[in-house]
Amino acid sequence: MSSVAFETQRAALADVVAIPVTPFAEDGSVARDTHRALLRRLLDGGITTLTPNGNTGEFYALTPEERRLVTELTIDEAGERAVVLVGVGHDVPTAVASARHARELGAGMVMVHQPVHPYVSQAGWVDYHRAIAEAVPELGVVPYIRNAQLTGARLAELADACPNVIGVKYAVPDAARFAAFARDAGLERFVWVAGLAEPYAPSYFSAGATGFTSGLVNVAPAVSLNMIEALRSGDYRAAMKVWEQIRRFEELRAANGSADNVTVVKEALASLGLCRREVRPPSRTLRDEQRAEVAAIAAGWSI
């Protein structure tokens, strides 16, 4: 399949790539109606790219059945209003089954989570992604790269074998490394998504990214859209004004090795009455004083 066939998917990556939360009910199950309501809020807010089963969605804390449910709810709710990029991962058979499930439901792309394994060779990284990409040649495939050792040449090798590898979610916190990696792999060959969200978006856009992921978007879609509009127009001063606006919120999420990354987003949503604050282990809820600070930030954005 030619790259022309993936024009819609490529355009969807060059945008705010929303990573929705997975809200839980009082009994601990996925809160389906709340999930749908949160997705509608994103869509109504102007978001057109959704990633079910991303890290902000607590991918690794969901059961296989819950991951399928989240995919189904998202694709159903999105309809024609958004392109859906389904997160897949774990062992190869599990990732392939998830990717095929996404294809059956009409998703346009899959995002392959970083392989969770203590021993990841670069050649093995290629093999892992190739097995998944070859199983769903009709879907756009987006590797989620968090491995600072991986070289751009390995990504190019993967795409030579699998032309449906069309974009990259790059999440190594090093703008210079990203700039080099993208050029080694092929700057124009892939859509580069800043995988560390708004805090890194200005520096990564300056080096060639054209989209960024966001968990904050769950709380304030307009804030994320303001940033990408500024970046698209090359107005870095305006983009940094948004950066300053979201700085404290993102610092709370990033503290202690991102221990509260999802927790802070859900706390903000809870303060607005949009979902319960509960997260699953190994995440945990915030202390009272942190809750108050998050609520104050969220209230400021909602005015």
From TrEMBL:
<keyword id="KW-0456">Lyase</keyword>
<dbReference type="Pfam" id="PF00701">
    <property type="entry name" value="DHDPS"/>
</dbReference>
<protein>
    <submittedName>
        <fullName>Dihydrodipicolinate synthase family protein</fullName>
    </submittedName>
</protein>
<dbReference type="InterPro" id="IPR002220">
    <property type="entry name" value="DapA-like"/>
</dbReference>
<dbReference type="InterPro" id="IPR013785">
    <property type="entry name" value="Aldolase_TIM"/>
</dbReference>
<comment type="similarity">
    <text>Belongs to the DapA family.</text>
</comment>
